[in-house]
Amino acid sequence: MPPMSKNVYIETFGCQMNLADTETVLARLKDEDYQQIETSENADLILYNTCSVRDGAEAKIRGRMGDLKKVKKQRPDLRIGIMGCMAQREQEALLKQYPHLDLVVGTDQFVHMPALLKQLDEGERLAATEFGDFEERNWSSLRTEGINAWVPVMRGCNYNCTYCIVPKTRGKEKSRPLNLIIDDIKELVDRGFAQVTLLGQTIDAYGKTLGDGNNLASLLRAVHEIDGLKRIRYITSHPKDITDELLHTIGELPRVCKHLHVPAQCGSSRILRLMGRRYTRDEYLHFADRARTIIPNVELLTDMIVGFPRETDEDFQESVSLMNEVRFDGAFVFIYSPRPGTGAYNLADDVSMEVKKARCNELLAIQLGHQQEMYASMHGQTHEILVEGPSKSNDQKLCGRTIGNRNIIFPRFDENGNSRDHLISNLASITIDSSTNLSLFGDLV
Ligand code: SAH
Ligand code: SF4
Ligand code: F3S
Q1: No. of helices (H) and no. of strands (E), the chain
Q2: Atom 3, ligand 3: which residue's CA is nearest?
């Protein structure tokens, strides 16, 4: 008898790496006749792909699990699983905490989801969180429709930033062999994807664990050779690993995006040392200069943490001045959240929430100001964008991104009312005519 099809509902939290892992799990489950559904009501299996980076991320999962208690009572056959970073961090403790949870799957084990579900059918609830044996082969993924496909090129992280849980939840850095990545991307281009985003926690360290001489520069060159690919993105970088060779390569290859997400985290050398970031304020500023000299149109994006233990007003003012000196093209600002098991967890979390919030708002306001000025200075310029699809806020508009990472919005219909949807997934030249704090607007040249 053919197996009956089952419904899986999966919710993904956290970073793009989790989105990519979710796509792999869905492909593996599809082979077992599971189909993805958009709400949890009719699910046979509910999966949460979780994030541990800040307590807020974990609080959401705890909330979801609380809600499911009643549901499981009414439908004992429902299977509930937690995968991702929280699964890796808490392991079987989660089974104890949530009696209605069936399955905990770690960040190196999720590719075995079908086998784990079968094991579950045969008996006990279980946690599969063994570390370090992630099998490097091309697990085909069910990519979300669109122009962009996520491509993990390395897993884990060998840094030990003292605030960060990622090395604990993702393990040691491990790069995927270059030929596997290239095969993967060729298939994605055949399937119609116009852009790939190469993923790694410290992508500029790509290749270190391979020992075959490959690095991010050689990977970008190899990906750039693939016919039909229009844009190549890559996130996230650590300032310490960005060589001049890499910057020159990014500058020279026309389809490689001129965009570096390279978190500074803080502007105070004293705090950077406590954070274990392995660079000083001056070294970061020097990096930013180097990047902008070698790649004149590069866009620099940062993450900033405010309220790290012992951050004084003076330290914070150095973050303010760093942002004013670099004038980032984009910034994410985070309030420090102590994570059990990290180095900084032993330091007293001694900046009050009130001060943390005020500092966070101040950095956000600075960034907004810079962005406003930058956008205003772009009026009249023409940029080539890769058109992504209808704008999220207005379906009468289309949007797309520059070779940096700026989003430009333009009319979906021409003067005669003809649709421009044929431009989706293609390059188009747009002249910018106006802007708000958050968006650029223009029209086809
Ligand atoms: N691998 C990336 C980022 C990992 S986490 C990198 O190294 O750049 C994404 C961001 O979350 C970090 O850049 C940092 O700014 C923030 N972050 C990490 N741990 C945090 C914590 N405990 N509290 C607040 N923000 C944190
Ligand atoms: Fe976390 Fe630092 Fe590794 Fe980034 S480089 S994932 S912040 S430990
Ligand atoms: Fe979160 Fe894990 Fe990504 S902690 S940010 S999902 S690597």
Answers
A1: 13, 19
A2: 15
Q: Which two three-digit tokens encode residue 298?
A: 């590069």
- What top-level class would CATH report for the domain 6-128? alpha beta
Per-residue pLDDT of 49-96, as tens digits, reads 999 999 999 999 999 999 999 999 999 999 999 999 999 999 999 999
Residue 14, ligand 1, Cβ within 6 A: no
Are 175 and 213 in contact, with CB atoms under 8 Å apart?
no
Say if CB 442 and CB 433 are below 8 A apart: yes
302 CB under 6 A from ligand 1? no
Per-residue pLDDT tens digits for 301-335: 999 999 999 999 999 999 999 999 999 999 999 99
- Claim: this prediction has a pTM higher than 0.90: yes
Concatenated DSSP letters for 225-243?
TSTT--EEEEE---GGG--
d(CA 413, CA 435): 20
Cα 217 → chain centroid: 20
The region that residue 106 occupies, defined by phi over 0 for left and psi between -120 and 50 for alpha, beta otherwise, is: beta
The CATH architecture that domain 382-444 belongs to is Beta Barrel (2.40)
* Distance (Å) of CA 164 to CA 17, 55, 73: 16, 12, 37
Q: Record the tokens describing residue 203, joined without a space.
A: 């992508």
Residues with CB under 6 A from ligand 2: 157, 159-161, 164, 166-167, 201-202, 238
The topology under which CATH files domain 148-377 is: pyruvate-formate lyase- activating enzyme (3.80.30)
Q: Considering the chain, tell me which residue range(s) the CATH 3.80.30.20 domain(s) occupy.
A: 148-377
C-alpha of residue 53 to centroid of ligand 1, in Å: 7
**Is residue 30 exposed (0-12), middle (13-18) or buried (19+ Cβ within 10 Å)?**
middle
Cβ atoms of residues 26 and 8 within 8 Å: yes
- Nearest Cα residue to 336 out of 304, 303, 360, 308: 308
